[in-house]
What we know:
The protein is of the alpha+beta class and about 220 residues long.
Amino acid sequence: MVYVKWTFWITIWLIVGAFFHYTLPQHDIVRIVNTYEEREELGDWTRIFWATPDDQSANLINRDVQFIQAVTPEGKAKVYRNEDTGWHWPPYFKFDTANLYTEANDAKSTKENPEWYAITHYGWRNEYWTVFPNAVAIKRVDGPDATIIPWLNILILTLFFALIWAVRVRWIRFRQARIDPVLEDIEDGWDAAGDRIAEKRGRVRRWLDSWKSKK
């Protein structure tokens, strides 16, 4: 049971960690090199990694998606999709895809004369499944060594763990006040019943032994 318990909780925390890692905003310092639009096939289950379309296009198997190509200071290629989130999850309430596309086009620079931008995004990049993170905002920074402190992530995670701690404390108090006494009463009842059964067995054994002695 100990292994089952630990497996259960490790699985739960892996799911929670993956959820926050996908949903919370991340920041990349990059040089924007290109933007383009491409028609993407929406797979049956990989739809969850794309923006939720409006009702009129919900049944489409493909649609045009805007992309932003960038390069990190280390020379690693980065590709972001540019889609509205609207009122859907995650709650970024992004409605300015066209504006962001214009900003990205205006932010292009060359390797000889680079301009560095912090791209705020959420999601994952997976080449095998053709999954791209969604760019949410673009902000120019002083250079490739600029530091972005994720204040929103710190606030959300602090509130989340504070909530978990509060729930755990209240659960422990509830268990000690309500559940543990009941379990102790049940255990005491079983012990008392066991003692009575043992006592009755002892009486029967003594009665049988008395009959054997008479013979």
